[in-house]
C-alpha cells in the first residue's frame, strides 16, 4: 500500500464508526465477492435476456425471409430462381411456423405498434380494443435438470416452455384460439368486439415477462378516457384498461347442461373453444365473470395521470 494512502487511512480512522483496515486478505475477499456478484448478475439476468432476444430476432428474421420468398414465388414466378431473392422457399413443413396463423403476433420489437400504444403505455386512438391470446408450449420432459433450474432462477424467461399448464391444456387452448381466428375470417359479422392479437411465450418471452404473465391466458386491452393534445402536434392520448383472464376458467358465468338418455340432466363444463368464444364474443362476459365466486380477472388502468412525466399528458388525462 502506498505510504500516502496509508497516512490518509490513519487520518480518517478516528472519524468513522469502524476502523478501516485494508490488507491483502481483505482486498482479495472483496474482489472475489465482486466477481461472484457480477457473475451471478450476468448468468441469471443479462445472459437469459440476450438469449431470449437473440432467439426471437433470429426466428422472425427467418420467418419473414420465407414469407418474402413465398410472396415472390406467388406474384413474380419469373424471379423464383433468381439468387438475389434467395431462390424458391423450402417446403411448408420444413419452415419455422408461428404458433397461430393469420393473426398479428405481438413481439418485443412490435409491442407498441401492433396495439397502437405509445412507448409510455398510453393509447394512440380512442375506441380501440384488443383481445390478446397468450399461448405457448410446456417445457420438454427431456430438458436437462440444470436447464430447468436455470429457467426457474433466471430473472428473464428462456425461450421455449412458456406454458405452465399441462400439455393437454396448452394444446387445447392453442387449437381453440386458432379455430376462433378461422371463425373470425369466415364469418360475415365478426363475433368479437375487438381485434385479435397473440403472444407466443416460447419465442417472445420478454413480452410475457414485461406483462408478468404465463401461458395460457387472455389479455383484454381497451382504450379508456381520451383527450386531444394540440402541442407539439395534434394527437390523441388515452389511458388503457388492461384485463387479464386466467385460463382455463374455474367457473363460467353461465351454466350448461345435457340431458342423458335416461332423462337425467347433468352439468357439462364447456370446452376450450367454448370458453374462449364466450369470453371474447359474448357481450357482458367480462362483467359476468366478476360476479362469479372465483373471478379469474386482474384489472388495472394504465397510466395513472399522477405518474406521467409529461405535464401535458398528465393534464390531458386529468381533464
Number of helices: 8
Strand order of the largest sheet: 1-3-2-4-5-8
- Can you summarize the main beta sheet? 6 strands, mixed
Secondary-structure-derived class:
alpha/beta
State the total count of DSSP E strands: 8
Can you give the helix content as a percent range?
A: 25-40%
Instruction: Return the string of H and E elements.
Output: HHEEHHEHEEEEHHEH
Tell me which oligomeric state these chains represent.
Answer: single chain
Radius of gyration: 27 Å
Give the overall form: globular
Mean pLDDT over all positions = 79
Give the N-terminus to C-terminus distance in angstroms: 64 Å
**Strand share of the residues?**
15-25%
Low-confidence stretches: 305-319
Keywords: Membrane, Transmembrane, Transmembrane helix
Transmembrane segments: 27-50
Write the layout of secondary structure elements.
Blueprint (H helix, E strand, L loop, with lengths): L2 H10 L11 H52 L28 E2 L23 E7 L9 H9 L13 H20 L8 E6 L4 H7 L5 E13 L5 E12 L10 E3 L5 E3 L4 H10 L3 H6 L6 E6 L8 H8 L1
Keywords: Membrane, Transmembrane, Transmembrane helix
Q: What's this model, at a glance?
A:
The protein is globular. The N and C termini lie far apart (64 Å).
Molecular structure report:
With 319 residues, the chain is an alpha/beta fold. The protein has a domain at 103-318. It contains eight helices and eight strands, in the order ααββααβαββββααβα. The protein has helices spanning 3-12, 24-75, 145-153, 167-186, 205-211, 272-281, 285-290, 311-318; strands at 104-105, 129-135, 195-200, 217-229, 235-246, 257-259, 265-267, 297-302. The strands form two sheets. It has a six-stranded mixed beta sheet, with helices on both faces. Strands 6-7 form a two-stranded antiparallel ribbon. Helix 4 (167-186) crosses helix 6. The radius of gyration is 27 Å and the shape is globular. The protein starts with a helix and ends with a helix. Mean pLDDT is 79; it is low at 305-319. Keywords: Membrane, Transmembrane, Transmembrane helix. The chain crosses the membrane at residues 27-50.
